[in-house]
Amino acid sequence: MKVRRIQPARFGLFVFAALWMLVIVPASVMAAPYAAMVMDARTGEVLHSRNADTRLHPASLTKMMTLYIAFQAIESGEISLDTKVKISKFAASEPPSKLGLQAGQRISMRYLIRAAAVKSANDAATAIGEALSGSEAAFARRMTRTAKSLGMTRTTFKNAHGLTENGHMSTARDMTILGRHVLYDFPEYYNLFSRTTTHAGVREVANTNRRLLANYRGADGIKTGYTRAAGFNLVASAERGNERIIATVFGGKSSATRNAKVAELLDLGFRRAPSRAPVRKPNKPASVGNDGPVIVAGNQTKPKGAGKVIRLSGAVKKSYRPRLRPGAEQAPAAVVVAEATPPAAVQADDIRTALVAAQAAPSTSPVTKGSGVTPLKRPAARPSDVVLARAQPEVVTRVSTSGGRHWGVNVGRYPSRYKAEKVLLQTALTEMSSLDGSLRKVVHKPQGFDANFMGMTRDGADLACRRLAARNITCFMIGPKS
Question: Mean pLDDT over all residues of the chain?
Fold first, then answer.
């Protein structure tokens, strides 16, 4: 048998062609396996899955967990939206996508949250983690513990932003579970993910998911992600009528094909989900805390996964009365209580007699000559021909409403009463301070259902509308009817 030998020149050309294919073929196409899951958000029922339990790179879907922990920390009082966070050199040096924060800069927590949720800014995500746990490594451990408490059994986090790192892995199932918890555990913050643009303190930023939000009916979140190792990922949620579906895709070949696939999966979910189903919200876990000592007062229990506990006992067991100094002790002073004498009965004739005597008798007040005190003179009697004018009642033609609670705020018009009531509830939870005490009212008009907050003063309505506008919520004041 004759064996043909490959010429060295041809072999070199073959190797060169293979290497050239590695260059021109995108790494994401070669290294990003596909996985998907579709879930009925109301019940948690899985409607479709493919490779849903395969551990893959989550990319910026990671930021859903970063934001979830931030919402937990705000709710528990660990930090506030107005807390000024100092940006470290490490956070400022994170690669794009980023907000462009500078080392040493101070920025409010609310702007870091907006940047991470809308812009998917890596520097903002790292700054959040450092603000809550001191370092990104400690925060990553907190993220993993929180994932376990949510039932995300195959997820391990190594950073706060999702850039590719050894061991930083999750699954389509776990990210779908996380998206459902974000939706139901923190509805007051969920609107962040539907904003097409927002102001992040430094500048206005655009949503990385704005194409799907604009083109798919009912879409209102949640989060995109991309790295070469992960491909194009997306967890999306949409609501139509009484139905809400969550769809997750890992390993998309491009943002366009990923969005098309997610739209296809959402359509599949709406076809398979029942039109009516009970809403069974997932159990909301307690915050797991950081690695360090956790200060616990009274009989509170240590959060699962938290570090060493330092218990503070602040309860007063027994109160002791202070003793007097030696020799300072005195006998208690006697308290004499005079018995009250019942007043004598006063007759009407006695009152009249006293009045007549007082008017007729001259002043008996002793006035010493040269004392500078002028004796009081009795005023002259009113002439008998003077006629007293009778006061005319004041006629009020219109009651002023500037200080009354006759004003309101409109936050939009919607196609259904359910949607209007939902927006009112979400808005009330978002801006509780200025809308506290107002009445949520849906007004049916031919063009739709108006969502109104009523029963406010003019100043209160003006303040509420300005604060809502600052949160990018469209509103206008409603005046009292004439």
Answer: 81
Q: Which of 24-33, 292-301, 434-443, 460-469 has the lowest mean pLDDT?
A: 292-301
The answer to whether the beta carbons of residues 209 and 220 sit under 8 Å apart is: no
Tell me how far apart the alpha carbons of residues 293 and 309 are, in angstroms, rounded to a whole number.
5
> Could you tell me which residues come within 8 angstroms of residue 286 by beta carbon, excluding any fewer than 6 positions away?
149, 303, 304
> Which residues fall within 8 angstroms of residue 413, CB to CB, at 6 or more apart?
420, 445, 447, 448, 449, 450, 451
Local structure of residue 93 (DSSP, 8 states): T
Q: How far apart are CA 120 and CA 206, in angstroms?
A: 10
Residue 65 pLDDT grade (very low, low, confident, very high; cuts 50, 70, 90): very high
- Give the strand order in the sheet containing 476-478: 439-445, 448-456, 407-414, 476-478
Cα–Cα dist 42/311, whole Å? 40
Report the Cα–Cα distance between both ends of the chain, in Å, rounded: 107
Give the residue numbers marked as catalytic. 60, 63, 120
CB count in 10 Å sphere of residue 476: 13
The C-alpha atoms of residue 48 and residue 40 are separated, in whole angstroms, by 10
Phi/psi at 107 (nearest 5 deg)? -145, 145
β-strands 46-50, 197-199 pairing: unpaired
CA gap 23, 40 in Å, rounded: 41
Q: List C-alpha distances in Å: 376 to 132, 254, 354, 382.
A: 79, 102, 19, 18
CA atoms of 249 and 50, how far apart (whole Å):
10
- The model's pTM is 0.59
Contacts by 260-267 with C-beta closer than 8 Å and gap 24+? 261/36, 262/212, 262/216, 262/234, 262/236, 263/212, 263/215, 263/216, 265/36, 265/38, 265/48, 266/38, 266/216, 266/219, 266/236, 266/238
Instruction: Using DSSP bridges, classify how beta strands 106-108 and 407-414 pair: parallel, antiparallel or unpaired.
Output: unpaired
